[in-house]
Amino acid sequence: MRRDTIATGFPVGDRVIAMNRHGMWQELAVVPANRTFPIPDGMSFEEAAALPINYMTAYMMLFEMANLRPGKSVLIHMAAGGVGIAATQLCQTVKDVTIFGTASASKHETISQGGVTHPIDYRTKDYVTEIRKISPKGVDIVLDPLGGSDTQKGFGLLKPLGMLIVFGAANCVTGQKKNLLAMAKTWYNQLTLNTLKLMQTNKAISGFHLGYIRDEELFEGTLVKLLELYQQGKIKPHIDSSYHFEEVADAMKRMHDRQNIGKVILLPEPKKSEEKPESKAEAAENVEKAEAAVSEKKEDAAEEVEAGKD
Ligand SMILES: NC(=O)c1ccc[n+]([C@@H]2O[C@H](COP(=O)([O-])OP(=O)(O)OC[C@H]3O[C@@H](n4cnc5c(N)ncnc54)[C@H](OP(=O)(O)O)[C@@H]3O)[C@@H](O)[C@H]2O)c1
Fold this sequence. Notes:
Blueprint: E1 2-3, E2 14-18, E3 36-38, H1 45-65, E4 73-76, H2 82-91, E5 98-102, H3 108-114, E6 118-120, H4 127-134, E7 139-144, H5 149-157, E8 158-166, H6 180-188, H7 195-201, E9 204-207, H8 216-231, E10 239-244, H9 248-256, E11 263-267, H10 280-309
Parallel strand pairs: 4-5, 4-7, 5-6, 7-8, 8-9, 10-11
Antiparallel strand pairs: 1-2, 2-3
The structure holds NADP nicotinamide-adenine-dinucleotide phosphate (NAP).
């Protein structure tokens, strides 16, 4: 997005990251000046779009809430997703952090290369058993975007003084259509504890939602720190794929089918016509036009020949 605002004092045409809670899937957006941040040199528009939500979420959870320190262990669910990759990279900015990451087996090579110490295929294996085999005492931090029974498992896996952070309820979504049964199951299985139990277990539970961060200083400060980490080469968004606005259904399908590794980006500019695949009707119409043009030229040529004879 290019900044077009007089209030900020930045020249018109500056490349900026612009953030708002909603209404950003459009070519032109109006946002408060303090929600725009200059894009560093060398950062592409795609990277700039991929960075804020994923990295701010991961950063605030790991460093503001869980106080990640050297030698600790972290369980990252959806490790091949946008937030998962961001969390993995941020964990690596701290010395000797062990990362357990759950993901489909086909994504393990990518997440291992990205820094996950122990990738676990949650589809075919019980991740609790796998983690206990490696670390019988469990883990220090669990980042939980799943909810339901996974929150219970995560709490069970925490070491004393460990922290579980709930930041999503992906278990409610099982396919392209709304699944009331999955929602009810997730709700029924959610972790309920009283504060006495928390005290007796020496564990912490926390919730996080970036959309409800109202502290502008915290918000701005975090993004500025992340841009610095990017410039130092310590973090780099992983772009899975980019789609033009008119291809949004394909982009959503890729995510619903859980095909993506990293961030799926929407590009506001329309697809160039030569990139567009022709529909059958358009192709037939174009063939007809071409044939008509050829026969018109033939007729003209024949007329010219006839005229030349005269
Ligand atoms: N609270 C906040 O502020 C905040 C901010 C950003 C995101 N979130 C939440 O964080 C989660 C991750 O977001 P993201 O952008 O990183 O996602 P993403 O990039 O779309 O990653 C999704 C991947 O997670 C895996 N997965 C595992 N269990 C899943 C399930 N039950 N439903 C869907 N996918 C599942 C799938 O990969 P496999 O092939 O490995 O199964 C899927 O491809 C989402 O639930 C989102 O709502 C919360």
